[in-house]
From TrEMBL:
GO terms for cellular component: extracellular region. It holds the Pfam family Glyco_hydro_18. Residues 277-292 have a biased composition (Basic and acidic residues). GO terms for biological process: carbohydrate metabolic process; chitin catabolic process. GO terms for molecular function: chitin binding; chitinase activity. SUPFAM superfamilies: (Trans)glycosidases (SSF51445). This is GH18 domain-containing protein. Residues 276-301 are annotated as: Disordered. It comes from Cannabis sativa. SMART domains: Glyco_18.
Amino acid sequence: FYYIMAPAKFQIGYWIASTEKPFSPENDSIVPLFTHLYYAFLQVQEGTGELIIPPELEEDMRSFVNCAHDKNKKALVSIGGPKTKTDDPSSAISMMARSADKRNKFVESTLAFAKDYGFDGFELAWEYPKTKNEMRNLSNLFSGWKSSLKSSNDDTKNLLLSIAVYCKPIIPNASSNQEIKYPHELENYGQKWILGDEKDTSIGAPTIAYVGPVAYKDIPDPEGGIFDKEVTKCMYKADKTTWYGYEATSSVTEKSKWEHENEDLIDILPLQFDDAGTSREEVGDNDGHGNDDIDDDATDL
């Protein structure tokens, strides 16, 4: 687990890997808005347990790391990710974690990868372990991962480890003297529904169909929506029979203010869904609490 052991502000952004839209110098402007940037997602080889390094993304990953380091930011890789219609990354991770031999090969491949590409650490996005055995395997995986880092004789011993976990109001068995920080996720996309009655556009209005996620930049006039400050603390708007729920300037500013006051983390994804004109990340960063420093006292536990 990735615990922050000193009060500081952390802002995390995810860049979704794509050969169709590679990371380019045009994206330099968003890098200073974060302290940690995650390149998402790489996958695990089901047969061997090793990290898969797609040849078509090699140049893109090096550009990503170089850009982050040029601006004194941390660059990490997220492994796994959400299930899609055609693939379940967690299946390969689960198979790797249940075998000691495959766990060792996975760890060795990640350390070699970090050394080659210059990444500062990893996030394991196993979404999610479902049984007690899988939770035990997850614990064994991180124990071996950490041991390999500590025994390393080069810069890999300083790699950061983090994990994507279930959203829960409390973490069982967490010591009260640990100053744990929990990332608050702000999405650059909203959700889209078809209304049952276009005259009823309120929160909880009846719908006849759920269309799916929609990028912030594709929502018509997103700043013209209504900020539901009391219930959902999000923006919403209706466009004829289409209803959108999403984050915009008002909701991002409100949540960023709360995060800064409570010294929590902000986690924004995916970066390429942001609007080119008025950045959601920039709104969150320019609320009077700007801080681009990285806390070097962060520790993986």
